[in-house]
Amino acid sequence: MERLDGGSAVPPSLRGGIVALGNFDGFHRGHQAVVGRAVEIARAEGRPALVATFDPHPVRFFKPSAPTFRLTTLAQRERLFKAAGADAMLVFHFDAELAAVSAEDFITQRLVGMIGAAGVVTGEDFTFGNRKRGTVAMLKSLGAAHGLSSEAVPPVEDEGQPVSSSRIRAALQTGDCATATRLLTRPFAIEGIVQHGDKRGRTIGYPTANIDMRNYLRPAYGIYAVRGRLADGRILDGAANLGVRPTFDPPKELLEPHFFDFSGDLYDQMVEVQLHAYLRSEAKFDSLDALIAQMQRDCDKARLILASTRP
Question: How far apart are CA 285 and CA 288, in angstroms?
Fold first, then answer.
């Protein structure tokens, strides 16, 4: 699958495509419905299927001091879009220039001109253009005048409420991995490069892979049953501390998975860590022996949980 720059003309082989347009952070069930419909139309009409997303997220541009909230990186979204059947991912770099583009110009200059789209699929609540003046109604009427079809997919509901990224964030912030997994259709996953740390875990028999949280949403601090995916495709079960390690000084925020029965070197490798279940909150222990005993209990519990969950 190709990754394209939304500020440049699309290659001839991908012009005339059907574009799924949205932020798609998390790529949850609602987003999947939008992309799935775009792919369905594209396949029926013999056209390319493209997924257009924005990076950074518009909220980060307008509110740079907002707490971290991302559910996926661009690399994760690219893999998810590919698995959904898309032929290319189109990334609009959201900056002052793009924020100033009128809704009308976004349709005529970007979608029709640069991308050469034949059709666009969005969610019903999608807005775009300067001051969010663009609506699905405008997209339908103005797009039609330029030969651009459009379709708005209604929200997907779960337990009587629309599936949304905000619901997923709220679930993760309370340690409710089950709800987040159901809305995402997969466990929430944090991806990062394994860093060198102070290697305390190794000295007590529980080596960990230290991963910086970067711009990801901060789920509830605590201990999780996790499953890791290595760059070579191997899948590893484990338990992880996500937080600031209150037993040790100085506090340092990290995701620290300990993978069961693994002894290799993961430094400087990219690892994706899925959060399957929240086991307990972080705690400060009076001694290393007390910490080690609790870590063993955590690992035993994580093994039981993961044994009933397919990779």
Answer: 7
